[in-house]
Design goal:
Structural class: alpha/beta
Number of strands: 14
Oligomer: single chain
Largest sheet: 6 strands, mixed
Order of helices and strands: EHHEEHEEHEHHHHEHEHEEHHHHEEHEEH
Strand content: 15-25%
Radius of gyration: 23 Å
Strand order of the largest sheet: 6-7-8-3-9-10
Shape: globular
Length: about 350
């Protein structure tokens, strides 16, 4: 595997008057509640180690106070850690001075905010063009680039409007277009869709996945919503009280929760809409008599619909034009009915 695009190593963040002293206690094993009670310091993050691969969506999720927004702000050093490293493109950005840090934020990373963060006195086109305007681009060049991305996110002809004339979903499309206009290879998205209505939120998730298939950015996406996380993530990181509870491929976490907290977290998930054929299939390339084919990415809900509820069917699981496994409807039903606990999760990969 190639080196990660971003690597977070042994990262700690402690808020308070004397963080260096409190750091010693945190490294000795003191947890968040005890550190606050005994030392009046807040443990924001403890010993975070996460690798984020080039061209993938890493989703960081957790409930309020888990440390997810604190973590993403370390990636462009809006917050500096108490201890640890953030490696971007092979360089420890903790060594950067102000000039190099500004360059990182302008050219390597873009950010999409929950509250849109649009400039109300500027047109939609000028908002989208902000990264290029800051760099001193001519109006002719930034108009062409901004218009291209406005069109790409479905806002054709909206460039002369002002933000207040757009709906919330349209304003967030402007935010995404602005991030794309920067031409950065890393996009940071902090609760980017949380303020949107459910239907609009689903549309935005679909738009992001469509753009990602085309552009292959490195995206770090923050959310508190597990359904959203499972839909978007190539790599899922679950935080609680400033610590990583579990991380990995979302399907694996769903089938193999490693902590009672994760078990509770996934208890109400509609497994049929989330689990995919590749997760519960029998891995084999041997040809067998089957009743049809399904894609590796097909959800179990789609498999059930294709089988019309017949529990005796078996499908070849295809990756493109290659067979990679066999999936029986009985395995599908077993996966959906499974009760998994953290002490002994079933492995159906």
């Amino acid at each position: 595997m190639t080196d990660p695009k971003i690597s977070i190593r042994n990262l700690y963040k402690i808020f308070g008057a004397h963080p260096e002293e409190a750091l010693k206690q945190a490294k000795a094993g003191m947890h968040k509640d005890e550190l606050l009670e005994k030392h009046n310091h807040v443990l924001g993050l403890r010993d975070i180690n996460v690798d984020m691969q080039d061209g993938e969506i890493t989703v960081i999720m957790g409930l309020s106070g888990s440390g997810k927004s604190t973590l993403i702000r370390h990636l462009n050093r809006l917050i500096d850690p108490t201890d640890g490293e953030v490696i971007v493109n092979g360089e420890n950005i903790m060594t950067y001075g102000e000039a190099r840090l500004r360059e990182l934020r302008r050219t390597n990373m873009s950010m999409v905010f929950q509250k849109f963060a649009l400039l109300p006195h500027r047109t939609v086109l000028d908002n989208v063009a902000t990264p290029m305007i800051v760099r001193g681009s001519t109006r002719r060049s930034y108009e062409a680039e901004a218009t291209k991305w406005l069109d790409r996110v479905g806002l054709e002809g909206q460039g002369a409007q002002y933000p207040h004339q757009l709906s919330g979903g349209m304003q967030q499309r402007v935010g995404i277009a602005r991030a794309l206009t920067s031409n950065s290879d890393i996009m940071l998205m902090d609760e980017a869709f949380s303020a949107l209505d459910p239907l609009i939120r689903t549309d935005m998730q679909d738009l992001l996945l469509e753009l990602q298939r085309e552009l292959q950015k490195t995206i770090i996406f923050i959310t508190h919503d597990l359904d959203e996380a499972l839909k978007l993530a190539d790599h899922l990181v679950i935080l609680k009280d400033g610590e990583v509870i579990q991380q990995g491929e979302p399907q694996h976490i769903l089938m193999n929760p490693g902590d009672p907290y994760i078990v509770d977290f996934i208890a109400d998930i509609n497994r049929a809409r989330v689990l995919r054929a590749r997760t519960v299939m029998e891995r084999t390339k041997e040809p067998r008599e089957t009743n049809g084919e399904v894609r590796t990415t097909a959800t179990l809900e789609e498999v059930i619909a294709q089988g019309k509820g017949n529990a005796d069917l078996t499908f070849r699981v295809m990756d493109g034009d290659r067979q990679v496994g066999i999936l029986s409807m009985r395995n599908v039903l077993t996966a959906l009915a499974a009760t998994v606990d953290a002490s002994g999760p079933s492995d159906r990969k």
